[in-house]
Design brief:
Layout: H1 2-18, E1 24-32, E2 43-51, H2 55-72, H3 85-102, E3 111-121, E4 126-135, E5 142-150, H4 167-181, E6 207-210, E7 215-219, E8 232-236, H5 238-241
Parallel strand pairs: 2-3
Antiparallel strand pairs: 1-2, 3-4, 4-5, 6-7, 7-8
Length: 248
């Protein structure tokens, strides 16, 4: 009986939350290296939207954003074990200072930045864009965009397959539009004009954005082409895919 009552209360909380809109407040975290002297302007800055109401859902959303930040800001073979943004930034600066102390002649400053923005919010879907850039030495840094798609009623992630009534049909449509936009002859392999799709097979990008103009397929640098090509975008006006798009 206690379990039934608990489930009933949880269901009421979800219904109550669904009628309320999530409220976000931007928070900024900044950390700079304490090392003084030329070449030690290493810094890291993170600005992210923090959900403040509807606690259970907000905690889930905030955690997802933090986990993405951890995937971006780190040095070494695997992400840091930090539990919060302060710890994450401290770890990044610590990695630089450890390297600098080990090699005093190393005078190349590092940089890391994340800017998160709620770009789309309806009763069915919440889309947070993460713009990021990191430089830890080498010929150039790496920047890009990450899309976090969340169900605002539960705080759970939404996989690409759940966005469409028929994802296979959408993927076929996307491939046709991709070939037309980049002038790839239909009878030729998808990589015939310099693309680098794995196994010569078209696939949807890792990041899909809901924008004012339509659904944006966004391939970051290196995802399907060389660094020099930059990011590759494919935009579908909502009117063009309204019979395929499930969540709006």
């Amino acid at each position: 009986m206690k379990k039934i009552v608990s489930y009933f209360i949880f269901a009421l909380l979800l219904v109550s939350c669904a009628a309320e809109e999530l409220i976000f407040t931007d928070r900024t975290f900044v950390k700079k290296s304490a090392l003084a002297g030329k070449g030690n302007s290493t810094s890291v800055k993170v600005t992210v939207p923090i959900a403040g109401n509807m606690k259970m859902i907000a905690d889930s959303i905030n955690n997802k954003v933090f986990l993405v930040a951890k995937e971006i800001i780190y040095f070494g073979e695997k992400p840091y074990t930090s539990k919060d943004y302060d710890g994450l930034l401290t770890s990044f600066i610590g990695s630089y200072e450890h390297l600098f102390k080990k090699f005093p002649d190393y005078n190349i400053p590092w940089e890391a930045s994340i800017e998160g923005t709620v770009i789309y919010q309806t009763e069915e879907i919440l889309n947070i864009e993460i713009k990021h850039y990191t430089f830890t030495g080498g010929a150039h840094g790496y920047g890009g965009l990450r899309s976090i798609l969340i169900d605002p009623n539960t705080g759970k992630s939404i996989p690409a397959v759940a966005l469409f009534d028929d994802i296979k049909a959408f993927e076929k449509l996307a491939e046709q539009k991709f070939e037309a936009q980049f002038k790839i002859p239909t009878k030729d392999p998808i990589n015939s004009t310099g693309m680098m799709f794995e196994n010569e097979k078209f696939h949807l990008p890792n990041n899909i954005f809901y924008t004012e103009k339509g659904l944006l397929l966004y391939y970051n640098q290196y995802e399907i082409a060389s660094y020099a090509e930059g990011p590759i975008e494919l935009l579908f006006p909502y009117t063009e895919i309204e019979n395929l798009l499930k969540l709006k």
